[in-house]
Amino acid sequence: MSIEATSREAIQQGSQSFAAAAALFDRETRVDAEMLYAWCRHCDDVIDGQTLGHDRVVVSPEQVRATLEELYAKTRSSLAGEPQSDPAFAAFQQVALRRGIPEAWAIELIDGFAMDVSEVRYATFEDTLKYCWHVAGAVGVMMALVMGVKPDDLATLRRAQDLGLAFQLTNIARDIVEDAQNGRVYLPDAWLTEADVPREDLAEPRHREAVAALAYSLIEAAEPYYESARWGLRALPFRSAWAVAAANRVYREIGVKVVERGPKAWDTRTSTSKATKVVLALQGGLMALRGKTFDRWREPPVRPPLWSRI
To answer: 302, 306, 156: which is closest to 224 by C-alpha?
Structure first.
């Protein structure tokens, strides 16, 4: 199977939402986005003992640490142009060298997985946002380069970062209970203390009302990042803007559903149907069209004082 085919399979099995959005890219951009995703997915999977985001198995701490060091080494090797036998790293090498992805951003993503391995605790919401940067904001800026954004266009890269942060805050809200069952808590300790929810008991059913309130706070906190990201659409080619706007709509809808379901949000995994994704993609098209027409000639609002790494 070719590297392109392997990468496409990874995105189709690993994330239906991302796959649906990626289908809107022009072919060249889609291929590169799929190859970047395949590498991100692979790195996440080998740390978690999963296959394309599923079928988790227990991995010993020693094996995890060895895997983490291997990820650092293979990532640097790929960026140095050295031959790669692993399809995920061969794919990453192609897109990274073609699009000029900086080593720093790629390593920032691996640093995020290292935070998981080290079981870092997040004292404040700012600490949670730093984690979101590593595992999603950095991916956002790398994807922006794939879509043709120039490395010195910091204003647009900042908007791409914001969308990654918003996505991850939504993911954390959706997966609070599942993550806690796997020993990972991304909610700030300050929030848990205020809600009177012991960190070690976060997944217990008796705390569902409090967890629902915490999830609402996460979704509310994500909203200004989603809104900020919208102003980056005008700098992208239309089809890329459409794909990004569709992803924006789909992930936002997941957050809405988490809030609507309240304490029952973790009885089953919250997702959107195929029909809903189609509607949201069409709405994303209108958002992208607005970005390329009305917004294009307007002075963008000053980015609010949101957390930023860029």
So the answer is: 306
Q: CA angle at residue 39 from 127 to 71, to 5 degrees? A: 70
pLDDT for 167-222, tens place per residue? 999 999 999 999 999 899 999 999 999 999 999 999 999 999 999 999 999 999 99
Tens-digit pLDDT profile for residues 242-278: 999 999 999 999 999 999 999 999 999 999 998 999 9
- The Cβ-side half-sphere exposure at 4, using a 13 Å CA radius, reads 6
**What residue ranges do the domains of the chain occupy?**
1-100, 119-310
User: H helices within 23-137, ranges in order?
Assistant: 27-48, 61-79, 87-99, 103-117, 125-132
Q: Return the CA Rg of the chain.
A: 19
Residues 236 and 147 sit within 8 Å (Cβ to Cβ): yes
Secondary structure class of 54 (helix, strand, coil): strand
For the domain made up of 119-310, the CATH class stated in words is mainly alpha
Q: Are 53 and 16 in contact (CB under 8 A)?
A: no
Coil, strand, or helix at residue 307? Answer: coil
CA proximity to 218, closest of 161, 162, 165: 165
The label of the residue with tokens 């991302």 reads 18
Among candidate residues 141, 191, 196, the one with its CA nearest the CA of residue 163: 141
Backbone φ and ψ for 195, nearest 5 degrees, come out as -85, -5
Return the structure tokens found at 22.
């990626």
Sequence-ordered list of residues with C-beta below 8 angstroms from that of 215, at least 6 positions apart, any chain: 173, 174, 176, 258, 259, 265
pTM: 0.93
